[in-house]
Request: fold
Amino acid sequence: AQKKYSGKKIVIYGRSLGAALALVEGAMRMGIAGVVAESPYTSQALLAKHYKDENPGDKVKPIESDSLEPLMNIRNFKAKHLLILHGKNEKYILTGELIDLIQRAPVANKKLTIFPSCDHLELPIKATQKFGEVMGEFLASCE
Reply:
């Protein structure tokens, strides 16, 4: 995208696993105006633990790769702006973990927005107005 759209503002948007990957990409690349991460996990180990706590009989094995770990990469975050979106009703991705993640990001322009009545990936559907407002403000702030 940087080669094809040279001189243009690039914002990466990811949801769920894609959100975690967007965070890692924001830590790896210079020149990214912003990253929007909707419902990212902070670490695969924590995600697997929370899932197992809710579903004791299921087996979950994280992929062993540091390149998929937002918590391990966030200190190197290079994008100029960061927005994390989170549904308060999510069972496996905890608010406290996302607060910790965003606090570790070394950028001044960062925000965690919590949607009170939403579960995983429900934000644009259940909270359309708020989602649109938050996204609009974020995109306008990216330089």
Remarks:
- Helices lie at 17-28, 44-54, 70-73, 95-104, 123-126, 128-141.
- The beta strands are 11-15, 34-38, 81-87, 109-115.
